[in-house]
Design brief:
The protein is an alpha/beta fold and 160 residues long. The chain has four helices and five strands; from the N terminus they run βαβαβαβαβ. α1 runs parallel beside α2. The protein is globular. The N and C termini lie far apart (46 Å). It comes from Albimonas pacifica.
């Protein structure tokens, strides 16, 4: 049996060179927009959180950035907590709320489809995090089309 002679890894060790950047740091030109859409269920995978973080980053790069929550994506924008709303029942339980609030606090806009909110998930508009704008189901397509007409950067997130 071969002997393992390498030291065990410890806190603070690096596995990769995270400081080297291969591509230039792109910033938005005046008036450029971005849209990040979510058709994904909260807590069913990492993409919901990852693309909220991407939306924050797009906003900080100067893009006029919007998030569109539709279908199961509305579950990212509802208030939650246990034993009371806002309480963190487990580490990371409030990741969506914390980061959506940060995004809106930095000027980002968040829209949520009323149809999905009520018909699919049994919530009303008071269930949304403060600052999220409820929209008609017909607005979902128009939101996307308006951003497309504006040549916006569009990140579509769709999980099943």
């Amino acid at each position: 049996m071969p002997a393992v002679t390498q030291e065990a890894h410890k806190d603070g060790d690096f596995f990769v060179d995270y400081e080297e950047k291969v591509f230039e740091d792109v910033k938005a030109d005046e008036g450029e927009k971005a849209l990040v859409t979510f058709h994904t269920v909260a807590f069913e995978g990492s993409i919901g959180l990852v693309n909220i973080l991407n939306a924050i980053r797009l906003n900080r790069k100067g893009y006029e950035t919007s998030i569109l929550l539709y279908g199961p994506g509305v579950t990212l924008g509802i208030q939650r907590g246990f034993p009371t709303l806002g309480d963190e029942a487990f580490p990371g339980h409030q990741n969506f709320a914390v980061n959506l609030k940060k995004f809106m606090g930095e000027g980002g806009k968040v829209f949520a489809c009323r149809f999905a909110l009520q018909a699919l998930y049994g919530h009303g508009e008071p269930s949304l995090l403060p600052g999220i704008v409820p929209i008609a189901p017909q607005d979902v397509l128009d939101c996307i089309l308006l951003h497309k007409k504006a040549n916006a950067v569009i990140l579509d997130t769709w999980t099943v």
